[in-house]
Amino acid sequence: MALMFPRLARNFIKNGYFPTDEPTLERALCALTPGDGPMCILDPCAGEGVAIAEAAHTLGRGEVKVKAFAVEYDAERARHARPLVDRCIHGDLMDTLISRQCFGLLWLNPPYGDLTRDVNGNIGYQGQGRARLEKLFYQKTLPLLQYDGVLIFIIPSYVLDAELTGWLTRHFTELRIYRAVETQFKQVVIFGRRVRQRDQTSDSVKATRGLLLQIGQGDADAEELPLEWPFPPYTVPASPTEPEHFYRVTLEAEQFADELGRLQGLWPSLDTHLGAAQQSLRPPARALSPWHLALALAAGAISGVVKSKTGRVLAIKGNTHKEKTRQTEYAEREDGSVSEIHIFTDKFVPVIHAWDMTPGSPTRGEVLTLH
Fold first, then answer.
1. Nearest 10 degrees: CA dihedral of 11, 12, 15, 20?
2. DSSP string spanning 122-137?
3. Cα 155 from chain centroid?
4. Which pLDDT score, from 0 to 100, does residue 143 have?
5. Which of 44, 165, 343, 352 is the right S-S partner for 327, CB 3.0 to 4.6 Å?
6. pTM of the model as a whole
7. CATH classification of 6-117+125-253, choosing from 3.60.21.10, 3.10.310.10, 3.50.50.60, 3.40.50.150?
């Protein structure tokens, strides 16, 4: 499998896109081994889906069943990723609903950069340190990883401040950090296994936290990711269940239009949903005059789909509502004073609504009011 589409390989940082380079990906996957049961794995910033697809291929050798899930913001990259994974969401990760603790592997290579404020002055980040995209994506995706699950976190080394290193040492054990093979973006690869929040006062945790801080501050250099993994591999555990929720909360206009075009709304089943059971009705004694037809239509006694000689198709429904008209009269009393009289009169107003169903009509799908 090609590890990067050539067009995007020539432009790594297009729209903040930093794909994992091929040597780093291959060496990182050497640190993984599959568990005993079906697994669900997730890449919430999937790009073209190559990294998570390669992870699924590595873990799925033999009879182990692996399902790869992906989220990608860019529409073009999401189209490339969709055939490589089992399920792919095209959208913003912050606009998704994904079941928690359902994934045995979290491959997290988030977008890099400082967070900017929206029109309300919010940045969507909950923390005290420097607001970075890498931290925001970590906060959003950590609950998705099951306990005992494996994290592979790829970020620039300078993002490792006191706050982020505190989170990592509190949430993960067996933490190891290496420099990526490709050095253009100063990336480090962090491995860890999720545990319930643990005390950070032990000597081993303090040592790990100190090393991460030194690398983040530039006081120490991480070793390059080894060609062959020198430790017992991280076992990706079987997932307790497939995610019940894995979808985007909102739709963009283009996606909504595509869905309408694909599903055709309720048009194919219009009679099923909107058609009443037809009964044989007795014809009137004589043909109704236009006045009678208009009156029956306005009263709601006649409704349905009508087609004109020009080919226009309308779903007609009439109704009548009551309005009050106000009239004021003045009268002079015998003593010379003036009385004011308000007269309210009920007025019944017929209204006929038509749903334009004409193919190709500029108002198709709109509700028109006929006077």
1. 150
2. ------SS--BHHHHH
3. 23
4. 95
5. 343
6. 0.66
7. 3.40.50.150
